[in-house]
Amino acid sequence: MVLADFYKIHGRRLSADGKHLLEISLNPNHSIFNGHFPDRPVTPGVCMLQIIKNISEDLLQSKLRMSAAKNIRFYAIIDPFAHPNLSLELAIKEADTIQIKANCSFDETIALKMELFFHRYTNSI
């Protein structure tokens, strides 16, 4: 797994309005940062998307397949050495599709916001 040992979850709770609030930390020594970028590490956006998917699968106890993504906004660079501790907020709504609105921040800085749509993964073809 590419993201093995990339992040750890340190806390999770459910807010009064049903949002999942998580505290995670990035591993600044992970090999991804050797190439992205040497001497100026930046957390790749696709890795943040994968973290959100992995955590959502854990919360929903189901493998997920992404069907769409919209309103993806990156507001701040996530430097794993300067800001390894992140707050992640997930609002999950399930109907025909699973809609996940995600916000990620460090300190008081919003790093990213996105809206993702998933289907539960099935093995049938």
UniProtKB/TrEMBL annotation:
SUPFAM superfamilies reported in the protein's UniProt record: Thioesterase/thiol ester dehydrase-isomerase (SSF54637)
Domain of life from the UniProt record: Bacteria
Limits of the ApeI dehydratase-like domain: 18-94
A Pfam family this chain is assigned to: ApeI-like
GO molecular function terms listed in the Swiss-Prot or TrEMBL record: lyase activity
Protein name: 3-hydroxyacyl-ACP dehydratase
Protein species of origin: Sphingobacterium athyrii
